[in-house]
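Sat 14:20. Reprocessing the chain from the morning session after the first attempt stalled halfway. Input below, unchanged.
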Amino acid sequence: MVAIVGVFLVVTSRNERLSAGNPISADKPRASAPEKKFAGDHWHAAYGIYICDNFVPDIQSDRDPTGIHTHNDGVIHIHPFTRAVSGSKATFEVFADAVGLSVSENQVKAGDKTYKNGDKCGDKEGRLKVLLNGNERPGDPKDIRLQDRDKLVIAFAPRDAKIPEDPPSAPTLDNLNDVEGSPGATSSTTQAPNPEGTVPPPGAGAVPDPAAPPEGVPGAPGAPTPEAPAGPATTIPPAPPLLPAP
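Finished this time. C-alpha cells:
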C-alpha cells in the first residue's frame, strides 16, 4: 500500500509540473503561481454584440479588477490574477461585471438601450440568441466558461435573421499586440536606468561624471572659457629715424 501511494504521489506531482509549464495542455485558464514560477495562462476570446442587423461598437472600458478585461478591441483578454476567477470560474460573467455589460438569457444592454425578448427590430419581434464558435448556445451567456480563441456573438434579432457566426474582432486573434511572436506585437526599447534607478527622459544626455566640476565652474563641460587677466601695460619705444644714404 505504501509503495502504491508513493507511486501515485510521484505521478501526480510530475503531471502538475508538466501542466504548469505548458499552458496549452490546460483546458481552463489558470492564475499565476509564483511558487511554481508559472506566470499564468494568457488567453484571448473574440466577442461581438449584434443588434437587429449589425454589430454595435466594441465596449470601451479600462477596468481590470480580476485580469479578465478588454483593450477596447473586441477581444476578451484572459489572464486571471487569482484562483477566484480562474479555471471553471473564468466565465463571461466575470468579464461582463468588469466592463459593466448587462446581459442575461433574454436581454442585453447596448449603449443606453436594453433589448428584451419581444422588443421590435423594425416590424419584427426580436429575441436574444448566443452563438459560441458558430453554434447556438442556450441559457445565460454569463455562465459561459471562457476558452482560448473562443468566438462569441451575443445577438438580439428576429428569429429568421441570419446572424454572423464570427464577431468582427475574430481576425484580431491572429494579430494581437500583447502576444509575443504575434504579427501585431509591438516592441519597445527600454532605457537603462541611471544611478538613482530611474529611467532618464527621452533626449536626456549621458549621466555626468561625478568627479567633474559642476556646471558653470571653470573646467566644467559647457562652461565659458575665462579670459586671462590683463597684465601691466608695456610701452614700446618708437623706431629710430632712417638715415639718408651716403
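The two ends are 141 Å apart (CA to CA).
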